[in-house]
Design brief:
The complex is a heterotrimer of chains A (185), B (623) and C (261). With 623 residues, chain B is mainly α. Helix content of chain B is 64%, strand content 0%. Chain B folds into 2 domains: 7-78; 96-575, Cytochrome c oxidase-like, subunit I domain (Cytochrome C Oxidase, Chain A), CATH 1.20.210.10. Chain C is α+β, with helices and mostly antiparallel strands and 261 residues long. Chain C folds into 2 domains: 3-67 and 96-124; 129-254, Immunoglobulin-like. In chain C, strand 2 (130-137) and strand 3 form a beta hairpin. Classes of the chains: A mainly alpha (185), B mainly alpha (623), C alpha+beta (261). Strand 1 (412-413) of chain B pairs parallel with strand 1 of chain C, so a sheet runs across the interface.
């Protein structure tokens, strides 16, 4: 009943199909953030509250950027069929992401921003939406790690890992942009 | 997991247990969310934060219970997918990945929502029979009725019936594929629809919501808590649209049969593709708007209050809202252009221009939204948006160009689908034409927020899209049910609806000009006769919907068995049995000429791009 | 092809009938009692007249085909006339539709707006313009006449043939200020000030014609249907006497001097 499931080989056409549709999803998700950042600029252009903690934001950014390293090594590992290495790297990425997520939540809960102020509400909107995407990204990473450990992927079919990693990079890039727009612009 | 089980009849429990489990998990999830948050905050489970978390966790429970646990979560973590997708009738009440099953699930969901919203509309017209308040106990319930009617119709019928129902069923068939690109995603997309409908229908339990389907803040911030179910219901329905959109685009791009070049893509598939691009781009914007609305009520933030930007809600809403009405109409137009050539036995006229029309409409649709706000915005915005709104009627005209050119000198068979398609075109002409009065700012200054607008959009959406939906239902009923409907009652349906629809809604143009504004439960006595006339015809119109309902339900069991191609049409869905087998085609079809060519047409293909390949030289295999 | 001349004749005849019907409707048009309303009414009727011809043409094309080329439903022959396109039809169609839409943008679109804005600009410079502050909340209206020293009125009294500057404020949600017979409306956004210029040009009142009433025209909650106010448009002399009766004495004197003309 719990025998691990392995994928069949993916054809080139299938890979093209999956990537094409994946980028559509990224496009759609980006529209969310275009809207959210547009609202930030409309609400409080050029205004950054002194209560916004640039240091904490900067640290979280660094953790995110650092998490890209194990993600890339996970993709490299799975391409050559090293499932356990890949699983470990994915978990490392996930734990770093969890650290960043904890930082984001802690900041959201403790920051002294008035949610009915122009800056405050756009801060909570942007950070909240992004936190939701971190949560999804973490789910993806944990699930992929578990699947890799159970030898579900192989040298002929690791598209999910690549796509999951790209989604994580998307989350990271979004945070970098968010950091810039919320804390500095 | 065979699609057509030989002999075993499923028991009642076997049929309903997945959806029952989904409901149970939804309830448990809601309870965990609502009570959990209540305990943490020290509040009540009926408080707003509790409602928010209740809905979210309830939605997760619903998805898991319907089959996502076995089919999604287990494989994510490397375990086997142990979900049984059912056989025969049991497939429709559970998570299933066959696009034909999903299409029918969407059709039923849309049909149910239509019936519910239609009944609410009958209630609204019953209230408006007299100038006083007599049908509803108070105006809040009337406003809630108006809100639920509009929200259900716009979010769970108009974009679900054709796009979700026919789109899912027929796009893979029409491109010659065996299923969609992502059957799993397709399967789960339908499960976001019922929670959306349920949230809207259950909003009265939280006091209802009074803003109408447009949810304008700041009224939405201060009215009853049912508004939260509006926000989340719309959000959930939006997720479904987005997921379907990704699937349709992927299928149309990557899964076309050999020989099916872009030049030969069926009109309905073009319409679905363009619609899906709009969905993928604009639904996220309204999703953010909804969440900002939630935040204004719950946190509370002040996005839309007097200290904020009240008009921002409207801008974000209509940025989505205007493309939304094209999402509604594009596939209806696609259906016209599928059906009319078949029943005129004549080559589709100006295919190229019709496709260009679709694409240009989609491009322009995101540039016109302020015309819903002419009486609210600053002067500087009026002329640019009036200009864009007028300009978009030009590509819309291309569709009529194609319709008229195809009908002219055809051999016209006035079957039920053809009648509905033509009536849809005539109704939409009135609807679209009256849009010109609203696009023109000086004229709009008087007409905005009156029953003139109500008439305009009912003519376009009901007269246009719903009539086209019925056209599609009659056209494709033989294909997806395997049986023929009763033609006499079909024609009765068509003529009855044409007459009573027009009698009901035409008078609304007059009431609007006579000073009747929108969304009012009571009115001044001088409008009584007009409203009585409208209401009575409205009831007769509403009753007319039982004719197709009974026709389809009965014919599905005792109708004459349908051949593969009862209409003599040429698109690929007719090249397989009625209904299609699992996997759609016995072998992947190879397309050698376009689908709208009848008789001896003088020119070779006139697609979007001049195509030197005329006949059967396509050699694309599985690249 | 006999059909084209027949269609042309039918189009002309039906359009003539259509225009005749429109003229009857115009003669029975609901009351319009302001200069701005004349503009909005003109825009509508202009579009109606031109649009009717287009509408009749398209309906005719479709219905004529339905009748002329109809065959039995069990017919299986393809049409004898097959063509993918015809530049003689496509090009004029596209050119005419583009020209017509372009034309509508300019007239009555931009020209109508220009007139309405022109009236507003003139009223802003006119010393005789009466300012009425419209304060609304869920679900009632209140009118102040600052220059006349009249406050908190629930009936809107106005002098005919005088520009009125309505200054609109809302205390809670979005409302919309509309007098149907004035033919123009403006939404009222909380936290902002909107201005609407109207010049009533007929003596009328809610008693005479229900279209002369203030009606909220943006859904604002359960009281929206009944959020109305009585309107009275009077002669200038009647207005002055009313103003004197209701205003404070010192202000009224100033008001009368300014209002007499």
């Amino acid at each position: 009943m719990s025998a691990p499931v392995t994928y069949e080989k993916l054809t080139a056409r299938q890979i093209r199909m999956y990537w094409g549709s994946f980028w559509l999803i990224i496009l759609s998700e980006s529209m969310i953030f275009v809207t959210v950042f547009a609202v930030r600029f409309l609400m409080a252009f050029g205004n950054v509250s002194p209560d916004a903690n640039r240091l904490v934001g900067g640290l979280i950014t660094l953790v995110f950027v650092a998490s890209v390293v194990p993600a890339r090594s996970a993709v490299r590992a799975i391409r050559s069929g090293h499932n356990d290495t890949a699983a470990r790297s994915l978990l490392t990425t996930a734990f770093m992401g969890l650290l960043a997520f904890a930082g984001v939540i802690a900041d959201l809960v403790t920051v002294h921003l008035d949610p009915s102020s122009r800056y405050g509400e756009s801060y909570f909107l942007a950070t909240g939406y992004h936190a939701l995407h971190i949560f999804i990204g973490l789910l993806v990473l944990f699930a992929l790690a578990s699947s890799a450990r159970r030898a579900r992927f192989n040298v002929n079919n690791y598209w999910s890992v690549e796509a999951g990693a790209v989604f994580w990079y998307f989350v990271v890039i979004l945070y970098i942009v968010l950091y810039g727009i919320l804390f500095w612009a | 997991m065979s699609a057509h089980s030989p002999s075993r009849r499923a028991s009642f429990v076997e049929i309903v247990w997945p959806i029952a489990r989904a409901t149970l998990f939804a309830g448990i999830g809601y309870a965990i969310g609502a009570f959990g948050v209540a305990v943490l905050r020290g509040g009540s489970w009926m408080d707003q934060p509790s409602i928010v978390f209740g809905f979210v966790i309830g939605l997760v429970g619903w998805l898991l219970g319907g089959g996502a646990f076995e089919a999604w979560v287990r494989p994510w973590f490397g375990f086997e997918n142990t979900w049984n997708e059912g056989h025969g009738i049991t497939r429709f009440f559970r998570y299933n990945t066959d696009h034909k099953v999903i299409g029918i699930q969407y059709m039923w969901a849309a049909g149910f929502a239509f019936l519910a919203a239609g009944l609410v509309a009958m209630g609204i017209r019953a209230e408006l029979l007299t100038p006083q308040l007599d049908f509803f106990t108070n105006r809040t319930w009337y406003n809630t009725a108006v809100s639920i009617h509009g929200s259900l119709m716009l979010f769970s019928v108009s974009v679900v019936a054709i796009v979700g129902g026919f789109g899912n069923y027929f796009v893979p068939l029409m491109v010659g594929a065996d299923d969609m690109v992502f059957p799993q995603v397709n399967g789960i997309s339908w499960w976001f629809v019922l929670p959306g409908i349920a949230a809207l229908l259950l909003s009265p339990l939280l006091g209802g919501f009074e803003t109408g389907w447009t949810g304008y803040a700041p009224l939405a911030t201060t009215d009853e808590a049912g508004q939260l179910f509006y926000y989340f219901g719309v959000f959930s329905l939006g997720v479904s649209s987005m997921l379907t959109g990704v699937n349709v685009i992927g299928t149309a791009i990557y899964m076309r049969a050999p020989g099916l070049t872009w030049n030969r893509l069926p009109m309905f598939v073009w319409a679905m593709m363009v619609t899906s691009v709009l969905n993928v781009m604009w639904v996220p914007v309204v999703g953010v708007d909804m969440m900002m609305g939630v935040m204004d009520r719950v946190v509370p933030t002040a996005f839309f209050g007097a200290k904020g930007f009240p008009l921002l809600w409207q801008d974000l809403f209509w940025l989505f809202g205007h493309p939304e009405v094209y999402i509604i109409m594009l596939t209806a137009w696609g259906l016209w252009l599928e059906i009319i050539p078949v029943f005129s036995r004549k080559t589709l006229f100006a295919y190229r221009w019709a496709v260009i029309g679709f694409i240009v409409i989609a491009l322009l649709s995101g540039t016109v939204w302020v015309h819903h706000m002419f009486t609210a915005v600053s002067e500087a915005r009026l002329i640019p948006f009036m200009t864009n709104t007028e300009v978009i009627s030009i590509p819309t005209g291309f569709i009529y160009l194609s319709v008229i050119g195809t009908l002219f000198q055809g051999r016209i068979r006035l079957t039920t689908p053809m009648l509905f398609a033509l009536f849809s075109a005539l109704n939409f002409l009135i609807g679209g034409g009256t849009g010109i009065f609203l696009a023109d700012v000086p004229s709009d200054f008087q007409l905005q927020d009156t029953f003139f607008v109500v008439a305009h959009f009912h003519y376009t959406i009901l007269g246009g899209m719903i009539f086209a939906w019925l056209a599609g239902l009659y056209y494709w009923f033989p294909k997806f049910s395997g049986r023929m409907y009763n033609e006499f009652w079909g024609k009765v349906n068509a003529w009855w609806m044409l007459v009573f629809f027009n009698l009901t809604f035409f008078t609304m143009f007059i009431s609007g000009l006579e000073g009747m504004n929108r969304r009012i439960a009571t009115y001044l006595p001088d409008l009584t006769h007009l409203n009585q006339f409208t209401s009575i015809n409205g009831f007769l119109f509403g009753i007319g919907f039982f004719v197709p309902l009974v026709n389809f339900l009965v014919s599905a069991y005792v109708g004459k068995r349908a051949p593969a191609n009862p209409w003599g049409a040429k698109t690929l869905e007719w090249a397989t049995s009625s209904p299609p087998p699992h996997g759609n085609f016995e072998e992947i079809p190879v397309v050698r000429e376009d689908f709208y060519r009848y008789g001896d047409v003088e020119e070779p293909e006139l697609g979007l791009f001049p195509n030197p390949i005329v006949r059967s030289q396509q050699t694309t295999g599985d690249d | 092809m006999r059909d084209l001349p027949i269609l042309a004749v039918l189009w002309v005849v039906l359009s003539a009938i259509g225009e005749w019907v429109i003229q009857i409707l115009v003669n029975h048009w609901p009351l319009i009692a302001s200069a701005q309303g004349e503009e909005t009414k003109y825009a509508f009727i202009f579009l109606f007249r031109v649009g009717a011809v287009v509408f009749i043409g398209v309906v005719l094309a479709i219905v004529y085909s339905m009748i002329r080329w109809r065959v039995r439903e069990d017919d299986t022959l393809d049409s004898a006339h097959q063509y993918r396109s015809s530049w003689r039809f496509v090009v004029p169609w596209i050119v005419v539709s583009a020209l017509l839409n372009g034309f509508f943008i300019i007239h009555p679109g931009i020209t109508g707006l220009a007139k309405i804005w022109g009236m507003a600009v003139a009223a802003a410079r006119n010393p005789n313009t009466i300012e009425v502050d419209v304060n609304c909340k869920q679900w009632s209206w209140s009118f102040d006449y600052p220059k006349q020293g009249i406050f908190n009125q629930t009936t809107l009294v106005l002098p005919v043939n005088t520009p009125i500057k309505f200054v609109l404020h809302s205390q809670d949600v979005i409302h919309s200020f509309w007098v149907p017979s004035f033919g123009i409306k403006k939404d009222i956004i909380p936290g902002e000030t909107r201005v609407l210029y109207v010049t009533p040009n007929k003596i009328t009142s809610t008693k005479d014609n229900l279209l002369t009433r203030v009606q909220c025209a943006e859904l604002c909650g359960s009281g929206h249907s009944t959020m109305r106010a009585v309107v009275q448009v009077e002669s200038k002399n009647d207005f002055e006497s009313w103003a004197q009766q209701n205003g404070s004495s010192s202000m009224a004197a100033g008001g009368v001097a300014g209002g007499a003309s």
